[in-house]
């Protein structure tokens, strides 16, 4: 009964806007069914070589970096409402145009454009979460949003498999439809609320002295924090690249069992995230939460160097999910706390870039180490690196946030 009470109470106190942002994210991410099948589309339907398909896919990562930077910059200039609205609505024609490009160069260009437009959504969405969440509920609001992302990614690939079997063109058009529905839902719900929020912000500006806030790209401590976020993401993103190869080639799991294991991870995060975030907020400091979460992620990989029976794989995946819950939403909270009121978009964008770079680097580094040195070296190296990152987070986070707090008190 106590566990049930903790779980149900973890959803209390969240604003109506936080729930709606999560719903929009769920619709949008449930429609993100193109990426998992893009490689198959290029090799099986367009008859690209595997090497050329990999090059085209790399443009998605490049677009993600550019989109995160652009989204953060323009969010601070025109506001998160306009950026999210434009990102969702402009994604619609871009998704519809993808089937028109059948050459490597053409497809790389449209994938780059689509990725830039769709990724501008992320920093703007993060700013919106901090804007509409109560100060004491910011991390749980981020967690609710992440829960929607995980649920959407669980639904999306399943739908994508059905739709791609019918027609790849139908897959792209369905993606466009999901972006359109998400965009209309967002605009209808937030248009009036955004107007009221702008008026409130203007009135506050008139009554307060405007303080010029610096760029995150000149914030040395935050840059150091983002560097370690990138290293953590390189470790964590093995989940999407080398881990599945390990499951198939070394653990000898069937594709069906790999799907069950990945599905279990998504289900576990949806089930546990809100409650575990509330526990961390209640009993841990931010530094300790990041330390424990990163250590769990590292140990989940390191243990695979010694055993890969199904029980070990389940324990490893469970630890990885709990570690993810105690790191990723708190990274966003720490970024929000470090930023000012007028440069949140830039800070969120820079933090997003660190993950986008990791998304590009991880598949190449991970597969190279696995091929040249073996999976045992990869998993032990990942675990060791994660342990070093955990210690770095433990010291950097309070050092960075305490300085920000002292500056605010001085002002």
Indicate the topology:
Layout: H1 2-9, H2 16-30, H3 35-45, H4 50-78, H5 80-97, H6 104-119, H7 121-132, H8 138-166, H9 168-207, H10 220-236, H11 242-249, H12 255-283, H13 286-302, H14 310-325, H15 328-338, H16 344-373, H17 375-410
In words, what does this structure look like?
The chain is an all-alpha fold and 411 residues long. It is built from 17 helices and no strands. It has helices at 2-9, 16-30, 35-45, 50-78, 80-97, 104-119, 121-132, 138-166, 168-207, 220-236, 242-249, 255-283, 286-302, 310-325, 328-338, 344-373, 375-410. The longest helix has 40 residues, at 168-207. The mean pLDDT is 85.
| Bulk shape | globular
In whole angstroms, the N-to-C terminal distance is 47 Å
> What portion of the residues fall into strands of 2 or more residues?
under 5%
Largest sheet: none
- Helix and strand string, N-terminal first? HHHHHHHHHHHHHHHHH
* Unreliable sequence segments: none
Class by SSE composition: mainly alpha
Considering DSSP H and I runs of 4 or more, what fraction of the residues is helical?
over 70%
Number-wise, the strands total 0
Task: Supply the number of helical segments.
Answer: 17
Provide keyphrases for this structure.
411 residues; mainly alpha; 17 helices
Give the structure's gist in a few sentences:
The protein has 411 residues and is mainly alpha-helical.
